[in-house]
Design brief:
The complex is a heterotrimer of chains A (346), B (321) and C (335).
Chain A (H helix, E strand, L loop, with lengths): L1 H12 L6 E11 L4 H8 L8 E12 L4 E5 L6 H8 L7 E6 L2 E2 L5 H10 E4 L13 H11 L5 H14 L16 H13 L5 E5 L7 H18 L2 E6 L2 H7 L2 E6 L2 E7 H6 L4 H8 L39 H5 L5 E4 L2 E3 L8
Parallel strand pairs in A: 3-8, 3-9, 6-7, 7-8
Antiparallel strand pairs in A: 1-2, 1-4, 4-5, 9-10, 10-12, 11-12
Helix pairs in contact in A: 5-6, 5-7, 6-7
Chain B lengths: L3 H6 L5 H11 L9 H11 L1 H18 L1 H4 L21 E2 L5 E2 L10 H37 L1 H16 L2 H12 L3 H28 L2 H8 L4 H37 L11 H9 L8 H28 L6
Chain C lengths: L12 E12 L2 E13 L4 E5 L6 H9 L6 E10 L2 E2 L5 H7 L4 E4 L13 H10 L7 H14 L5 H4 L9 H13 L5 E5 L7 H18 L2 E6 L2 H7 L2 E6 L2 E7 H6 L4 H8 L48 E2 L5 E2 L13
Parallel strand pairs in C: 3-8, 3-9, 6-7, 7-8
Antiparallel strand pairs in C: 1-2, 1-4, 4-5, 9-10, 10-12, 11-12
Classes of the chains: A alpha/beta (346), B mainly alpha (321), C alpha/beta (335).
């Protein structure tokens, strides 16, 4: 029910600027040669510059109240992209537009405001909470520092946020280790919510939780979206969860976006061979004892990605051109983009 | 939405069970955590830890209240009687007072001298370790948080500092600065800050990689708050251990320097100077002048090390049970 | 192969009333209580539960790998009819790695990072058969690597564990477990840390190998979807006990225990994207604060007064057992 009204809303919003736009973002990690390496290079040793394109020329947008799922396997760069969106990491190239403004070219005051509008929920709830902070302080610290609400209303504000996240406000004096995993994640969500964000990046936010707790947290995310008109970037390897929660899905492979589209579209008609294979491997309660058509081979090392289309060594439909040229992301249906040379064959 | 229990079970829970079920599903009452109290308890339940703590506390109290405990003020020349010089332990003075640990070559009661010497030694040890801790921690934190060139610079400085024997550095410094409590503290700080810097940097690097620091940055908290409120307090356990051990080391280094005659002035004798004073009478059979201050020094250092050892076991997450 | 004195048994492994406790300040606390389990040769059984359910402790108890302060305090562990709790330590060591083997979530639990793969594999063979011909043993190692889908097994024998990716390392661990053709393999969340495409490969591989060799496989996991893919029979554990047991399809389509039902319904399905998920309220009780009676009653939507009484695992229909005072009847089933 939420989802239907959501799709319409998102389409209506298309005319306006999206809440957040990722514009040709690239993130490279480079191991700079240290003194010894430089010396060795001087003496004739081969220079071993290791560059990883964690994110390679990625573009997509998130609209108000939209849930975008970002899926892919380990090493595909989804977490890095999530961190860039959350402002914890910076892109090597490309722009991030918040409400149409380039976040790299605004005043520091403005940048701080943008930063607060995008919050992040992390995979390991215990690690994401300072072990020496009582949870009341953990949740209120930033709200207080940035004066999100007047000091007189702070206590009520924090209590309201905690209650909304299902945390008993009378436990504010406890330390994170006294809570269960699910409770800790709720505290992390309350901390993010306390600064009134508009977009929440969830980086594998339910991956470390038990199944029954996972359902509680996913429901909480949905409730909060209704309450606060939140948008989510839901980074996850769990395709079942992403399918359930997302309006739109972005699929990454080895640093590149290979396909994106509305959830219904993408799951009904996956275009890219990688997406097709990936969706075919997801276990579900309905498929029992089916023999998988497993994708051959392993994910190549991001240090040495294959030429052309990164997927070609594992692709059942690989052609000559796949080894040579990177396929551009092209619209294959309305709002459905895919990066595959097969689409050019006509 | 918040009260999960009611949502799930409207009307289906037998009223007799409602309270018990609500209690079971609400937040489970975990025992309150008192990390400091627990750490102290765990130090004291270990026999060696207990012995060490007792020694340290006893010596600290003795040093602190030296003024009241000591039978005479060993630096008040008016009360000293040169005729009482080098009396063996247990002898009585002309005035009827018993020198339980004997006297030195000035006729000073050795017990009193040790209490006052202990006070000087402990003060110098703690003061120098404390100052070195502050300087080293700041350097280590800055180094870890900013990384890059600053990190390289600080860490190379630390390497250089640590590659010289501390005693050599202290000797040179004192030769330049001259004698005095302040001078020796400066010398000890210079030789020791690097240990703290390295410890804090290592711990801070680990903490900086944890996601609560990412979360703090995501919440747009300034670097100053992230380092001081978040990272530093989590670096404390290893820092406390290093600091304890370093106090012991500072005390013994100071004793060494004083023994060599370039540490503290004769007017403020520490344990090292007392040992040095008695040294020349060792061979003539008056052993007590050196040995008793030596035993006091030994007890102090062993005590601190026992406590430090146990603290390391308690605070090191690798040894947590 | 040595056969036990106690004679043949239909089951590869049988647990009868297994109880494992952990000794602490407040006395012994049971992590696993009265677990009965039986598995036939060639059967693949799922042991499902959330954290704190005792599923991993059960696996480790079978292998005799419970360390102080934990200990197996009650029950029988019958491997081919031989009670592992009664055999001398030497015999247990001989059985471990030979007749039964374990695969962990982290393959580095099995692999030694400083030894080459071939050294470790040869050791696993010679430990149980010292007189074996070196060439034969070597060939067996190579074949085992090839069987779990490692390319160039001959060459990869010379590699160190760190030279493999996570998925490949898990394959090596599986190859070592399979090396002596054991009767029983216990796999504790072996694919949880792996990507879905790699998980699919390993599940397919394990299924094939166990079928070919008639190996009994206990797959311990929190993930019902994996269980659906792989197993024939399922044991559902909650708070230290088995709460339901039965054939896979029955359990998934017609769960009898409210907890099983809750677990199944809380998994997002393809049908209703965006809808609220079913959620079980509360959380698994901590091991030292178990509710009395049925341990699930505080979270159960169907709770009644008599749920405070202790309840046994009772037979309910063909081949099915449930530990519940008010099992869900067919009429109440929600599909």
């Amino acid at each position: 029910m939420i989802s239907n009204s959501q799709t319409q809303l998102a389409t209506a919003d298309d005319q306006q600027a999206p809440l957040l736009e990722i514009d040709h973002v690239t993130r490279r990690f480079e191991r700079k040669p240290d003194f010894a390496a430089k010396l060795a290079a001087r003496l004739g040793a081969p220079i071993n510059r290791r560059t990883v394109h964690a994110v390679d020329d990625a573009s997509f947008a998130i609209h108000r109240r939209e849930v975008v799922g970002l899926v892919g396997e380990s090493g595909c760069g989804k977490s890095t992209l999530g961190r860039i969106v959350a402002g914890i990491d910076n892109p090597t190239e490309g722009r991030i537009l918040y409400n149409g403004d380039d976040v790299a070219h605004v005043s520091s005051e403005e940048a701080r405001r943008f930063q607060l509008k995008i919050q992040m929920i992390f995979q390991d709830p215990l690690d994401s909470l300072n072990p020496r902070y009582r949870i009341g302080k953990a949740v209120s610290e930033a709200a207080r520092y940035h004066k999100v609400v007047p000091e007189a209303e702070m206590t009520a504000h924090i209590e309201k946020v905690l209650l909304q996240c299902g945390v008993d406000p009378t436990t504010q004096n406890r330390f994170p280790h006294q809570f269960s995993g699910g409770q800790r994640q709720r505290i992390g969500i309350a901390r993010a919510l306390a600064v009134r964000p508009e977009l929440v990046v969830c980086d594998e936010a339910v991956a470390s939780l038990d199944v029954s707790i996972q359902a509680q947290i996913i429901n909480l995310f949905m409730d909060l979206r209704d309450e606060y008109d939140l948008a989510y970037l839901f980074v996850s390897h769990d395709i079942g969860v992403v399918r359930h929660i997302s309006d739109r899905v972005v699929v990454m492979y080895l640093g590149r976006i290979v396909e994106q589209g509305t959830t219904a579209d993408l799951f009904a008609k996956p275009n890219h061979p990688y997406t097709q294979a990936l969706l075919g491997q997801v276990p579900s309660l309905k498929r029992r004892h089916s023999s998988f058509h497993t994708i051959k081979g392993e994910i190549p090392s991001p240090l040495k990605p294959p030429s052309g289309c990164h997927f070609h060594p594992r692709c059942p439909h690989a052609m000559d051109i796949c080894k040579q040229a990177r396929p551009p992301l092209k619209e294959v249906a309305s709002g459905h983009m895919s990066a595959c040379h097969l689409n050019d064959k006509g | 939405m918040t009260d999960l229990t009611t949502e799930m079970k409207q009307g289906t829970i037998p009223p007799e069970l409602a309270a018990e079920i609500a209690a079971a599903n609400s937040f489970p009452p975990e025992p309150p955590a008192r990390p400091v109290r627990r750490a102290i308890k765990r130090v004291l339940t270990d026999p060696l830890g207990l012995v060490g703590t007792l020694i340290v506390v006893l010596l600290l109290l003795a040093a602190l209240f030296a003024h009241w405990i000591a039978p005479q003020n060993p630096y008040d020349l008016a009360v000293l009687d040169i005729m009482d010089n080098r009396l063996s332990p247990g002898s009585e003075s002309f005035s009827g007072m018993t020198y339980w640990l004997g006297t030195d070559d000035q006729g000073r009661d050795l017990f009193s001298a040790i209490l006052y010497g202990l006070r000087t030694s402990i003060f110098v040890g703690i003061a120098s370790a404390g100052i070195a801790l502050v300087i080293g921690s700041v350097m280590g934190l800055v180094s870890a948080y900013f990384g890059g060139r600053i990190d390289t610079l600080v860490m190379r400085l630390v390497d250089i500092q640590l590659s010289f024997p501390p005693i050599l550095v202290a000797l040179i410094l004192l030769a330049i600065l001259g004698q005095g409590v302040d001078k020796i503290i400066v010398a000890l700080v210079v030789t020791q800050w690097a240990y703290y810097a390295r410890t804090v940097r290592g711990a801070a690097l680990v903490e900086r990689g944890r996601t609560y620091v990412d979360a703090a940055r995501c919440l747009a908290l300034p670097s100053r708050m992230v380092t001081l409120n978040h990272i530093l307090p989590n670096c404390l356990p290893p820092l406390i251990v290093v600091a304890t051990m370093r106090v012991a080391y500072a005390v013994s280094l100071e004793a060494t320097l004083s023994f060599l005659g370039i540490g503290l002035p004769v007017t403020e004798p520490s344990l090292g100077l007392l040992i040095s004073n008695g040294n020349k009478y060792m061979l003539s059979g008056d052993w007590w002048i050196s040995v008793f201050p030596g035993v006091a020094l030994l007890l102090l250092i062993v005590g601190i090390n026992l406590v430090g050892d146990r603290l390391r076991d308690v605070l090191n997450p690798k040894f947590k049970d | 192969m040595m056969t036990s004195m106690t004679g043949r048994s239909d089951y590869t492994l049988e647990l009868r009333g297994l109880e494992t406790v952990f000794d602490g300040d407040k006395g012994a606390i049971a992590a696993v209580r009265n677990v009965n389990l039986a598995i036939k040769p060639g059967e693949i059984v799922g042991l499902v539960g959330e954290s704190g359910s005792g599923k991993s402790v059960t696996g480790l108890s079978i292998m005799g790998l419970i360390d102080r302060p934990g200990r197996v305090s009650k029950g029988e562990i019958l491997l081919n009819g031989e009670d592992l709790r009664k055999v001398p330590a030497k015999r247990l060591r001989a059985l471990r790695g030979d007749r039964m083997a374990m695969i962990f979530q982290d393959p580095m639990m099995t692999l030694n990072p400083v030894l080459r793969i071939d050294t470790q594999m040869m050791e696993a063979i010679t430990a149980h058969d010292p007189k074996i011909d070196k060439t034969i043993a070597r060939n067996r190692c190579r074949d085992a690597l090839g069987m779990v889908g490692i390319p160039d097994p001959e060459e990869r024998l010379y590699a160190y564990p760190h030279q493999f990716s996570g998925g490949m390392r898990q394959r090596v661990a599986i190859a070592i477990a399979m090396l002596n053709n054991p009767d029983l393999i216990i796999a504790d969340e072996p694919t949880t840390a792996l990507d879905v495409t790699i998980q699919a490969q390993i599940i397919a591989e394990m299924q094939k190998l166990c079928k070919e060799r008639d190996t009994a496989l206990i797959w311990i996991t929190h993930d019902l979807t994996v269980v659906a893919e792989l197993t024939q029979r399922v044991y559902v554990m909650y708070a230290g006990s088995v709460v339901e047991e039965g054939p896979l399809d029955d359990i998934l389509d017609r769960p009898l225990h409210p907890y099983t039902q809750g677990l199944i319904r809380s998994i997002p399905s393809d049908n209703e994207p965006g809808a609220r998920l079913f959620q079980i309220p509360g959380m698994t009780p901590p091991i030292d604060r178990m509710p009395k009676g049925c341990r699930f009653h505080p979270r159960c939507p169907y709770v009644q007064l008599d749920c405070l009484n202790d309840v046994d695992l009772v037979e309910q229909g063909a081949g099915r057992h449930v530990r519940c005072v008010h099992p869900i009847s067919q009429g109440e089933q929600i599909s």
